[in-house]
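Note to self: the last two entries modelled the partners one at a time, which told us nothing about the interface. This time every component goes in together.
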Amino acid sequence: MIKSIGMKLYVLLTILFLYTPIVVLMVMGFNESRYNSLPFRFSTRWYEELSQNATLLSAAENSFYLAIVTGIICVILATLFTLGAESLSKRAEGLCRSVMMMPMSIPWLIMGLSMLLMIRFIDMDKNLFFVAAGHVVISLPYAMLVLQARIHSIDPALEEMSLSLGADAWTTFRKITLPAIAPAMVAGGFLSFMISFDNFPISYFLMPSGISTLPIEIQSSIKFGFTPEINAISTIIIGISLACLAIVGLIMGRSFKSVLGGGK
Amino acid sequence: MAKVTIKNLTKVYGENTVVSNISVEVPDGTLVSILGPSGCGKTTTLRMIAGFEIPQEGEIYFDDQPITGIPVNKRNIGMVFQSYALFPHMTVKQNIAYGLEQRKFTKSEIEKQVNTALKMVHMEEYANRKPKQLSGGQQQRVALARALVIKPRVLLLDECLSALDKKLRVEMQLELRKILEETGVTTFFVTHDQEEAMTLSDYIIVMNNGIIEQIGTPLEIYEKPKNAFVASFLGKANFFEQGNRLYAVRPEKVSISKERMENAKKKGRVSFVTYSGSLTSYTIEAEEKTVVVQQQNTSLQEQINKGDEVYIGWEKESQIPLEA
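The predicted structure of the combined assembly is written out below.
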């Protein structure tokens, strides 16, 4: 009895620990006070002001486009790489995989700095292409992780069976392999989208002046005066991500959950 | 349907010769088992016939056409794997239709042939299920229908009954045999189960260490094994040396009695008795040899117990001379 209460309490505390800051942020977005202070008085004032705030909105828009491009590129690269690596020898495959995963273990700050130095070194101006490339470098390992887990769990006999039934390699890919890895592609894309959308250091180092992303905007607003508009836009983003997760989960059903779970 | 000829086929992985210079000719419409312990090269041989592996040397012919240069998808073969490899995202019907779609049949023709195939394996009512919703035996039937519906020249079965439990496996063996006799397709059946090979096949190819030990009908292989490996791999055998020749005698061909009989060869002591319904097996220590004897149980039989002194004997015809 005591044990089961203890266990429930433990779960409750863990959830509180994880989500209290987010809940506070969301609630304060609906508080009239400019300084996130109590007493709480409900208001949609900050959402109205946000709708007039062109800087914040355009930064959000930039972040969104950048993340979409990053997500798509990462999925394509990760899928091609993982499928291609299957035909390499075990040693070469392992080596390639380690090289691809390496960016995960390098701090983003250092990655960003090294990219900036490289741009200087080749004597070019900062531009959006470099920003996107930087985002791809740091997001790719996450997409790879998800896709590898899935591709390795596919029975190789399926593709052989398709060939034996008379399908050529391209048809086999389209009709057998692609449906099997589609949930992982969606999940991998989503993950790299989130990594990119959230990224501050790479964008901070590589963004050309005059353009900014949401993380950069949020960071600078802390320096120059912070209004609950930030809470409002954060709440909207959380809402959109949850909705996306739910929709993807619904479409992909169990296979998507299993990808997030990491198993079969 | 086709006659299959394998000539001097060799497959080497690194320093490992998996299949070593094998040759065999399989008449059109026969069912041939490739039998052997794991690692004997049987699956590799099957995969070379399918086209998943390319031999270093030798050639395979369907009728008189060499096929080594033809890719898998142009060979017109049917396959059933041990895992069945049903496409998980397709229904039973879509699975069976897949091969026909690749062959550009019209929709109505595909529909017709899929229905015939479903009927053949008694799976009509499961047409719209996904593979996950089927039992092992049902998946097996679908896999078979999918392989046969394309009217392959050669059917290749890779341990395809091994995943089923014993009772279902025996049922499927009989049904498989019936279906294959109806379709008359030349079939290669890879297995490590000697009983299954005997029940199913017209011919058995016994392989060991990458070479063919013996080819023959189940009767020939069992009654006239060429060497000690074949004799002991298919069924049990007692081995005797006479002069410098080696002989095998099957346990059921050895007679046993407490009285000295006419054909008595040896005298010994019973060390172990097992009773399994229709048969009783005796292990006898006779003149520093262990002899296994199997007797059909009858109501008139002499009671022999552990520790009894017995005579054992056999007819001269039951002595199988073996190659060294």
